[in-house]
Amino acid sequence: MRRLLGVVRWMSLVCMVATGATAFGQEVTLRHAQSAAALDALATLVVRFNDEQKGKARVALEDLSGVADVHRLPHMALLDDEDVRLFFGSRPRFLPLTDVMKTGGQAFNAARLLPQMADAVDDLRGRPQALPLALVLPVLFYNKEAFTRAGLDPEKPPRTWWETQQVAGRLFDAGYGCPLTTSRFSWVHLENLSSQHGEPVLAKGSHGDRFALNNLVHVKHLALLTSWHKSSYFHYFGPGREGDAKFVSGECAMLTGESGLYAELRQRRQFPVGVAELPYYEDVFGVSPANVLPDGAALWTLPGMKKAEYAVVASFIAFLMRPDVQRQWVRATGFLPMTSAALDEMAASGVSPAIVDAARRRLNMSKQDKSRLRPGESRGRLRAILGEEVELVWKNVKPAKEALDTAMRRANTP
Fold first, then answer.
1. Whole-angstrom Cα distance, residue 20 to residue 14?
2. Which one of 3.40.50.2300, 3.40.50.720, 3.40.50.300, 3.40.190.10 gives the CATH number of domain 2-136+294-351?
3. Eight-state DSSP code of residue 128
4. Residue 111 CA to chain centroid, in angstroms?
5. Is residue 376 pLDDT above 60, yes or no?
6. For residue 52, what pLDDT is reported?
7. pTM of this prediction?
8. Angle at Cα 259 formed by Cα 164 and Cα 367, nearest 5°?
9. Any residues with CB less than 8 A from the CB of 201 and at least 6 apart, and which?
């Protein structure tokens, strides 16, 4: 019944957008690419906000898949940094979150954001540029049923990458053609590798900071994955979220990907799912396995609005920051809480204890600028280049070191 009500709310929003909703006051548009439970939750919150405005203002949802002209800018966009060009056809300028709230006449205390959530959207001066609404952590998902059939303990997932190799071998021998796959390769296997093992993603050079995702640990890791790829222990389906579907369908027994996928896996109940922290190399000095990087979709504000429109946007952002709304959002989606007030909601909503534990330990940690790429065009460009070069590794065209060295040379060339 609750799902049906969510669909009704969503359909009513679609109808209002289609008819222009002229009976309402000031209207602003929020463009997004959410689906399934996240879309239902977003639509429900928008309806709740609009109801509270009592006709004075409203937010209209705009699904990216139905946008005829992406160059026509909305007022807000909930998007991953990598999807900017897909959303708008180019990279527009965004307005800093604090400026939006000030112009819209709403108080905003950036200190309320959990440190690591703020770090994901801060600029180089520590100012939040967007609202970290739909962020996730990298985790290891595994099919407990597959573990059991392979004679593995379903309650003991691999902790290190060497243990992962042993598990993958056992799964392969048990008849699983795809023991391990991944989503978002650059973020999971290179950026988070840096964060866990204390490697800076930017190194000082004679002409300023330079990308440095080709250190010894990166080469070592990519070389190991290459050997797994050749032996069919690891399968690569693309640089984005292509691996998700392979795990959800049961084709692959393990997946390194986004914690937010757990909500879909729990809803499908196709097989018992285990969740563990992202593996690490225990032989690297100073390794901190819990030091993973929250990442994902944030709520960005576009320029060129009227003051009355900024007022609605700022009111909506303030609404999303309310503790009761935060708890509702986290409970419905499984995304990471933005504030401490919603941390407990993760456990209460049935999110995997491994994800809850990782969030508790990580999100309150102080910011670590040296291990994170800032949002912006250069990060999206770097991830695209890495995707191209890594593809050549899987095709056996380039060895790991050459591919990473080439990627860094390309990314560091203006």
1. 10
2. 3.40.190.10
3. B
4. 22
5. yes
6. 97
7. 0.90
8. 95
9. 191, 194, 211, 212, 213, 370, 371, 372, 373
